[in-house]
C-alpha cells in the first residue's frame, strides 16, 4: 500500500473516540505505521502498549487541552451510538462537542483534524446510486444522529484555515463492518434469534455499500498524510467505500448464513414496513416517559434496508490514492470468523 513518508514530529496523534469500534482499529493501524498515539474517550475499553489513554468527555475543553498537548494530528471518531435516538445527547456531543474540539485544537496548536463523518449526511430515505460528494446535505435528515452529523461535518470543514495553519478534512464511510463491531452484526443476530429476520423488505434488489473497517482506517490515514496546505483535500469530504456495492439482503444473508442462521426469504412491501416503523417510533416517543422500548425496525433501518444507497469513491482514489485493501468477500469471512459467540446455538 502506498503511503506518504512523514517526519517523526508529525507522527504524534490523538484519536478522540479511540476506545470505539472504528477508533480502536485506527489506533492499531497507526501504531503499526509508527505513530505514537493518545486516545481520548469517555471510557477505556482496552489496553495496548504504546498507547496513552486519557478518559474524559469531549465537551470538556480543559480535559481536551491536556490531551492535545504536543499533538499535531487529531482524528475525531467519537459519537453517541445512532441507536440511542437521544436528540439532546447528539446535539451536545456531535455539535457542541465538535465546536469544543475545534477550539481546543486551535488553542493547542494542532495542525490537522480528520473527522469521521458519514455518507448518511446526504441520505433522506430515497435511492442514491453512485452518489458523489457534491450531493447536497439531506434537507430532511432521517434521524437526530444524521441531523447532527451534518452540522458536525459543516463545522469541521468550515474551520479549515490555511492562513492559520489549521487543516481539516472529513471522511464519509458507509456501513462499516468488521470484528468487534458492536452494532451491525450483534443487532442482526439479535433480530434473527427473535425470529425477526425471515423477511426481505421490498424486492431485495437494492444495492448498498458495506465497508470493511480496515478500508475505512486506510482512508483516514491517507487523508491525514495527504492533508497539506497545497492539497485539494483541505476542507473537503471524501467517501470511503469497499467500491463493491452489494444487494442489502445478500450481505445480510451472507452474514446470517455464515453464522448458522437461515437467510430471509419472504418479501414484505417496503411502504408498509416503513409506515409501521414510523408508527412504532411515534408510539415510543409518546410512551417514553412511562416505558422504555427499543424497536428493532426503526424508520432509519427500514429505509436503509429497502433503498439503494451506494457512493462513488472516485474522489478518494484521485486525491488520496485510495484503493480498498480488503475485498468484501475477505471482509465478510473475517467478520463471520470473529463472532464465534454469536453463532447459532452458541
Ligand atoms: N459504524 C458505522 O457503520 C459508521 C458508519 C459511518 C460513520 N460512522 C462514524 O464513525 C465514528 C465511529 O463510530 P463507531 O461505529 O466506531 O462507534 P462506537 O460507538 O464504537 O465508538 C464511538 C466512541 O466514541 C466515544 N464517545 C462517545 N461520546 C463521547 C464523549 N462525549 N466524549 C468522548 N468520547 C465519546 C464512545 O465511548 C466510543 O468509544 C462515529 O463518528 C460514527 O458516526 C460509523
Ligand atoms: C433491517 C435490520 C434491522 C437489519 C439489521 C442490521 C442493521 C442494524 C444495520 C444494517 C445497516 C446498518 C447501518 C447503520 C447502523 C446499523 C444498520 C442499520 C448506520 C446507520 C450506522 C451509522 C452510520 O453513520 C451509517 C452510515 O452512513 O454508514 C450506517 C448505515 C448502515
From TrEMBL:
Pfam families: 3Beta_HSD. It is an enzyme of class 1 (oxidoreductase). Keywords: Acetylation, Cholesterol biosynthesis, Cholesterol metabolism, Endoplasmic reticulum, Lipid biosynthesis, Lipid droplet, Lipid metabolism, Membrane, NAD, Oxidoreductase, Steroid biosynthesis, Steroid metabolism, Sterol biosynthesis, Sterol metabolism, Transmembrane, Transmembrane helix. Homodimer. GO terms for molecular function: 3-beta-hydroxysteroid dehydrogenase [NAD(P)+]/C4-decarboxylase activity. Pathway: Steroid biosynthesis; zymosterol biosynthesis; zymosterol from lanosterol: step 4/6. This is Sterol-4-alpha-carboxylate 3-dehydrogenase, decarboxylating. The chain crosses the membrane at residues 272-291. It catalyses: 4beta-methylzymosterol-4alpha-carboxylate + NAD(+) = 3-dehydro-4-methylzymosterol + CO2 + NADH; 4alpha-carboxy-4beta-methyl-5alpha-cholest-8-en-3beta-ol + NAD(+) = 4alpha-methyl-5alpha-cholest-8-en-3-one + CO2 + NADH; 4alpha-carboxy-5alpha-cholest-8-ene-3beta-ol + NADP(+) = 5alpha-cholest-8-en-3-one + CO2 + NADPH; 4alpha-carboxyzymosterol + NADP(+) = zymosterone + CO2 + NADPH. It is found in: Endoplasmic reticulum membrane; Lipid droplet. It is a single-pass membrane protein. It comes from Fundulus heteroclitus (Killifish). GO terms for biological process: cholesterol biosynthetic process. The keyword ATP-binding does not apply. Its EC number is 1.1.1.170. GO terms for cellular component: endoplasmic reticulum membrane; lipid droplet. Residues 14-268 form the 3-beta hydroxysteroid dehydrogenase/isomerase domain. Signal peptide: none annotated. Its main location: endoplasmic reticulum. Belongs to the 3-beta-HSD family.
Amino acid at each position: 500500500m502506498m503511503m506518504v513518508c512523514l517526519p517523526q514530529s508529525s507522527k504524534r496523534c490523538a484519536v478522540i473516540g479511540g476506545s470505539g469500534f472504528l477508533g480502536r482499529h485506527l489506533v492499531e493501524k497507526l501504531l503499526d505505521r509508527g505513530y505514537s498515539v493518545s486516545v481520548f474517550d469517555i471510557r477505556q475499553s482496552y489496553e495496548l502498549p504504546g498507547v496513552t489513554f486519557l478518559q474524559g468527555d469531549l465537551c470538556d475543553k480543559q480535559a481536551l487541552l491536556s490531551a492535545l498537548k504536543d499533538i499535531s494530528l487529531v482524528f475525531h471518531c467519537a459519537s453517541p451510538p445512532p441507536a440511542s435516538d437521544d436528540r439532546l445527547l447528539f446535539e451536545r456531543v456531535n455539535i457542541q462537542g465538535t465546536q469544543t474540539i475545534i477550539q481546543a485544537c486551535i488553542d493547542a496548536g494542532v495542525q490537522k483534524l480528520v473527522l469521521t463523518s458519514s455518507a448518511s449526511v446526504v441520505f433522506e430515505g430515497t435511492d442514491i446510486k453512485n452518489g458523489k460528494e457534491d450531493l447536497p446535505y439531506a434537507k430532511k435528515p432521517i434521524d437526530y444522529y444524521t441531523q447532527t452529523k451534518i452540522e458536525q461535518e459543516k463545522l469541521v470543514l468550515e474551520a479549515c484555515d490555511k492562513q492559520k495553519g489549521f487543516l481539516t478534512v472529513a471522511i464519509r464511510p458507509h456501513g462499516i463492518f468488521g470484528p468487534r463491531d458492536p452494532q451491525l452484526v450483534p443487532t442482526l443476530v439479535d433480530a434473527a434469534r427473535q425470529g425477526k429476520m425471515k423477511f426481505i423488505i421490498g424486492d431485495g434488489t437494492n444495492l448498498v455499500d458495506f465497508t470493511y473497517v480496515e478500508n475505512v482506517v486506510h482512508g483516514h490515514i491517507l487523508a491525514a498524510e495527504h492533508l497539506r496546505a497545497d492539497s485539494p483535500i483541505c476542507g473537503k469530504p471524501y467517501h470511503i467505500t469497499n467500491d463493491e456495492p452489494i444487494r442489502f439482503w445478500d450481505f445480510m444473508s451472507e452474514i446470517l448464513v455464515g453464522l448458522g442462521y437461515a437467510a430471509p426469504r419472504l418479501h414484505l412491501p417496503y411502504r408498509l414496513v416503513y409506515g409501521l416503523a414510523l408508527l412504532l417510533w411515534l408510539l415510543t416517543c409518546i410512551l417514553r416517559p412511562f416505558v422504555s422500548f427499543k424497536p428493532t425496525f426503526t424508520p432509519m433501518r427500514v429505509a436503509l434496508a429497502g433503498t439503494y444507497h451506494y457512493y462513488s469513491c472516485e474522489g478518494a482514489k484521485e486525491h488520496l490514492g485510495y484503493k480498498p485493501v480488503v475485498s468484501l468477500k475477505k471482509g465478510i469471512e473475517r467478520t463471520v470468523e470473529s463472532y464465534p459467540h454469536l453463532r447459532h446455538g452458541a
